[in-house]
Specification:
Helix content: 25-40%
Low-confidence stretches: 139-168
Distance between the termini: 21 Å
Order of helices and strands: HHHEEHEEHEEHEE
Radius of gyration: 16 Å
CATH class of the largest domain: Mainly Alpha
Mean pLDDT: 77
CATH topology of the largest domain: Arc Repressor Mutant, subunit A
Shape: elongated
Number of helices: 6
Strand content: 15-25%
Largest sheet: 4 strands, antiparallel
Strand order of the largest sheet: 2-1-8-7
Length: 168
């Protein structure tokens, strides 16, 4: 059920301007999917949704095309693994370190791979979103998305990272 619910969430936010998780729950119910706000909150975090100008959006592969990052993955709950263009891991790690992302404990960079240590799974999700925002451009975000716990102003667009919360 999670997979079809998550697919429905992506379809809903691509078609409608959804401002909060309660609206998303209501839209899912209209589509015949009965769920709770807490389940939607977990789905939002798992999908990596962000908020752009107050509405949920899914960041597509184009988000990474604007910068040196090729792929972002996780290794357990406390590590983020980032692949970059050849020779770009060290300057990318430096930019992440300079951003002062509080959820990040430290970074280690090789030639094209970085390991980023975080405190826990929640910090991991938030750190990934903040890193994506750091290297994304507003034009690279192609769908409207959901509410967040951390925000940033990027070229006049309010982009926020979604964390698990019960306040919608």
């Amino acid at each position: 059920m999670n997979r079809s619910r998550r697919q429905a969430i992506l379809e809903i936010i691509s078609d409608k301007r959804i401002e909060n998780q309660q609206e998303l729950v209501a839209e899912l119910e209209r589509a015949g999917i009965v769920t709770t706000q807490s389940s939607v909150s977990r789905d939002v975090a798992k999908l990596g949704l962000i908020k752009v100008n107050g509405h949920y959006a899914a960041a597509g592969p184009e988000v990474m095309a604007a910068g040196p990052i090729v792929n972002v993955d996780t290794a357990g709950e406390c590590l983020v693994v980032i692949k970059t263009e050849i020779g770009q891991a060290s300057p990318t790690a430096l930019k992440i370190d300079q951003a002062g992302i509080s959820e990040i404990i430290g970074t280690v960079a090789g030639d094209d791979t970085m390991l980023i240590a975080v405190k826990n799974a929640a910090a991991q999700r938030i750190a990934i979103r903040k890193i994506m925002e750091l290297f994304s451009t507003p034009e690279s975000i192609f769908r409207p998305a959901i509410s967040t716990t951390a925000g940033a102003e990027v070229s006049g667009h309010n982009i926020q990272a979604e964390g698990i919360s019960n306040n919608g």
